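Figure 2 data, in text form.
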Amino acid sequence: MAFGLMLPFRIAQFVFAVVVIGLSGYVAHWYDADTLTSSPSQVNFLIFAPLFSFISIAYLEITPRFMPRASHPYAHLALEALNTLFYFAGFVALSVFIGKLLFCRGSVCAAARADAVFAAFSWLLWTGSSVVVALQIFKGGFKNLKDEKHSGPMSQVPIQSQA
């Protein structure tokens, strides 16, 4: 993978995940403590998405460096795509929920709106890193996936004939 480009992605994804889980936790606590209802599932989902991101970032950064045999490019792509899907679903669901409220005011409403915005930025970050990972995997097209025996480091060395 392109380690020079991916590390800033991972740092930003981690920071945004911390912000999203903090804002979601605040909104969920307000519902649980100040109202007689449980927190909405949209908010709860945006607590799950950053937790999944923390696990994904740990796998995506630690495994290739310290356990390369447990690292697989398709697993990387699958985790990237799942995080992209989770953040997209989360910020859209929370945005629709906030839009259908009869009234939305105070610090909890501002936190819920900020939560949706930060989740949308997290979605953009995960989309960008998913594209980078997919481009790295499929750089040479599908021919490299089918014919892996000729794609090693010595495949570019010309064969010398003996005369």
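Caption note: The helical segments are 3-34, 41-66, 73-99, 107-137, 143-146.
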